[in-house]
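Before a computer can learn anything about folding, someone has to put a protein's shape into writing. The three-dimensional part falls to structure tokens, numbers that each stand for a local backbone shape. The protein below has been through that process, and both of its lines are reproduced in full.
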Amino acid sequence: MRSPPQASRPSSREAKPLSHAVNKTAILAIILTSYVMLVLDTSIVLTGLPSIHRELGFSDPELAWVQSAYTLTFGGFLLLGARAGDILGRKRMLTIGLALFTASSLAIGLAETPAWMIGARAAQGIGGAILAPATLALLQTTFAEGTERTRAVSYYSAVAGIAASVGLVLGGVLAEWLSWRVGFFINLPIGLGMILAAIRFVPETGRQSGRLDIAGGLTSTIGMVALVYSLIRSASHGWHDSLTIGLIAASLLLLVVFVAIERRARQPIMPLRLFASRERVGAYSARILFLGGMIGFFFFTTQFLQSVLGYSAAATGLAFLPATLVNFASAMAVPQLTKRFGNARLLATGFVLTLIGMTWLSRVSADADYLCDIALPMILIGWGQGFVLSPLTASGISGVSGADAGAASGVVNVAHQLGSSLGLAILVAITAFGTSGLEGIQLLAHRVTMALTGSAAMMALALVLVLALIVRQRRPASIIVPVADESVDVA
């Protein structure tokens, strides 16, 4: 392992992929398992919310904070957590993130009051904000850009999509047959095992000299927390609420200040050079829209199955299997398909499939037939998701130097988290249109239809961005591999 050079040029700190003496299989297993813990807990809580509501005595307004507390801290601390890995070492931050996430999972499983649950979920979000960028940055610095990284990223993205769907199934089954607490307790042995494995197999990456960008960290964290909170608040208080408007204005001002700080900082937590690439900008923008549409798919379809069709929690989880199984198969085929068609074309194909499936599902009604109206469009959505996430992640970190690996992964994860928060807030606002004269099941079915129509619109806009910013500029048969100060064009 090279000592970090003292030169100030960013490219001189380029971290080459780890040598073949390193057990890359073990590192990949640690990365994937750690990421599964993150994604699984995000979705497993959805089908367990009714049980949490009853057992801990949450009020209806308080219940939203079970998810919102996690979202706030996760989104708010992502950039700071990402850059800390670049400066302090990614193995160290991976271990810290695993420890905090595991400990807070145990606290959630032991929760006895709403305040206890919300506090533990907030702590879990901070652990996730440290862990998520560390996993992606390690993947980037361990596997060389090209076929090797494409395969690793496809596995990384596949487990994200699969874990999200499996979490719904597992959450429903556990809540109905055992307890919602079990979904969090299982993180304890897994987390401890991953900490020991990381200490044993993951070599520490080179640490950059200098200090952490505290001013940038504070403005980005407070700005992101305020923005996410205002979006969550808008769903319940409306867009005319004075506090909501004030928080949005304050958050935007802080984020403008943050950008100004990053332009002058010697070691910014979000280097603005990351946005010099049209491909990366397209990937970040499309990811926000894609996650906004997908959170609508999971959130509102779950409500429809339980409240309109009368499915149990377990049956609701199992109803997502068409999307889960196809997602797994298509994601596993990504490395070979990328070789044949290129990252950009595969990405566009995935968005087309997802758009068709989401548009089809948005026509669902109170007398829907599961097979034709739900299962078949789910297959298209799962198929498209398998094709989208891996190429989208690859484009988001394409051509980034090792010195900026953590920062780039932080931006990818911020886009992921912001997409979910912003998307859900927008979709909830959309569901209020055209509800006059409706009530009961007809009202809920209408809201689900409106929300899924909004999800389809997000997919359509994301497809336009992909075609304009990624497909038009990227040559599918060529891969740019950064080496020190040069880029080698590999056919």
